[in-house]
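Re-run requested by the PI after the first attempt was lost when the workstation crashed. Everything re-entered from the original request form. Ligand of interest: zinc ion.
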Amino acid sequence: MPQIISGGCRCGQVRYECATEPLAVTLCYCRDCQQFAGGACGNFVVMPVSSVAVTGRIKSYSVQAESDRTISREFCPECGSPLFATTSNLHAVTVASFDDPSPYKPTLAIWLDSAPPWAAAPPDIPQFPRNPPLSSGQ
Ligand SMILES: [Zn+2]
Ligand SMILES: [Zn+2]
């Protein structure tokens, strides 16, 4: 049964709701995610694009991922909170923007090739040097 997940940016200008089963919860250590998140990795819940309803204004920039896909990085133009990373078929939502992030334990860690040496991924989840096979990550 799909759960309703709600969240938004720090200032409240952007709100979203999704009614879906998350496909994965990723820790992505690629440089794009590091720069988007301002930390050692990006932490996202990945879901189908069609399942996310957004209200408020978002701003975005596009990056070409090493996998050759174009990723749109979306954030609140008022407070700067990172919110979404979207491709043509996937919507990755930052776990920190959820109203309640606590249920979303990471299920895989990806792009460890570019992780800082001091940033270890949790040892009990699958880890991949780059994108996993049959990628649902960034
Ligand atoms: Zn905001
Ligand atoms: Zn990434």
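Saved to the shared folder this time. Helices lie at 31-37.
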